[in-house]
Amino acid sequence: MDARQLEYFMAIVDNDGFGRAAQKLHIAQPSLSQAVAGLERELGVRLFHRIGRGAVLSDAGKELIGPARQVLRDLRTARATMDSLKGVQRGRVELVTMPSPGIEPLSTLTRLFTQQHPGVIVAADAAFTPEEVVQKVRDGACELGLVGAPGSVLAPGVDVLPLESQNFVVVGADDAGFPDEDPVPRAALAGARLIASPPGSQMRRIVDEMLASGEDLEIVAEVAHRTSILPLVLQGVGLAVLPSAWAPLASRAGARVARIDPPSQLHVSLISRSAPLTPAAQAFLTVARSHTPVGYLEQTT
User: Fold this and answer.
1) DSSP conformational letter for 188
2) What is the pLDDT of residues 63-76, one digit of tens each?
3) Residue 263 in 3-state DSSP?
4) Is there a contact between 296 and 169 (Cβ–Cβ < 8 Å)?
């Protein structure tokens, strides 16, 4: 078994098949198939079940994903560590982020990091739940993860660095029945038309709490992609409850923003693999440790 074989195996897994993997690797598909067949012979197990012109992971293949990711990650770490003897001048920070932390603090952290390490690329993958972020970091798909949760993140196999707490705000267009108060009592939202995320998110939990308390609210749109919420707000479809990371962008776009009373918060943390990090990821973590958040409250007072 060699690193090239594992790289080919993971390319097939991550690109959903031999054809796309061959294109990604810039090699002929027969060469890729021969390399994987050689790996299967060495291991003595089938990694894929061939079905027609496609392939499906076998149970043995599924078990190999985690160790293969770890081996390839460790090899990249070793190479990057040698490069770091000359300083962190190049490389790649691979992280995964939930939508709201993907606005802030990711924007600020990336700006600070790239100023200090202009030759290093920050590559941000996407996830929607804390569990997804933790799983990707734990499996080695990413080294770092930005999580927004109702409280502290507790997960074995990862280290957690709390970064900031974001108050939730209500966002709306001028002509969408926006309340005059700031902060807005939740009761003042009675009769409002709301754009909400699907059940399970903290944004949705706040809306569900108001509904459960008897507030006369109407959910007019349920949107999974957070990036679609603000455009719908600006079109006057309804109001939305969002973390304050969205407040500066919403204000610049012409929306109105106000705090919610009583307040509710999204706690943002940076999680990292417990295994040794690449120098680039370690440098990003160092920047994050010095992060001083500037929240919506401070910006508006």
Assistant:
1) G
2) 999 888 888 877 87
3) coil
4) yes
φ and ψ of 195, to 5 deg: -100, 120
What share of residues in the chain are helix, strand, coil (percent, to 5)?
A: 45, 25, 30
pLDDT in tens, 133-185: 999 998 888 999 999 988 888 888 899 999 999 999 999 987 656 888 888 88
Q: CA 251 to CA 264: how far, in whole Å?
A: 20
Rounded to whole angstroms, how far apart are CA atoms 7 and 242? 40
What's the CA dihedral at 24, 25, 27, 29 to 10 degrees? -60
Q: Which regions of 47-156 does DSSP assign to beta strands (E)?
A: 48-51, 54-57, 91-97, 120-126, 144-149
The closest alpha carbon to 200, from 96, 130, 297, belongs to 130
For residue 218, give both structure tokens: 């109407």
Cα–Cα dist 31/54, whole Å? 16
Neighbours of 290 (CB within 10 A): 8
- Please give the radius of gyration of the chain, using alpha carbons only, rounded to the nearest integer: 23
CB 116 within 8 A of CB 212: no
**Closest among 206, 191, 285 to 238, alpha carbons compared:** 191
Closest by CA to 168, choosing from 144, 154, 150, 191, is 150
Contact (Cβ atoms closer than 8 angstroms) between residue 120 and residue 95: no
**Which residue is associated with the tokens 């919610």?**
260
| pLDDT tens digits along 253-279 | 999 999 998 888 999 999 998 878 888
- Write the DSSP symbol of residue 216: -
DSSP of 130-170, one letter per residue? Answer: HHHHHHHHHHTS-SEEEEEESS----TTEEEEEEEEEEEEE
Q: Who contacts 35 (Cβ-Cβ below 8 Å, separation ≥6)?
A: 4, 5, 8
Q: Is the model's pTM score more than 0.90?
A: no
Q: Which of 145, 144, 109 is nearest to 130 (CA)?
A: 145
On whether the CB atoms of residues 293 and 103 are closer than 8 A, the answer is no
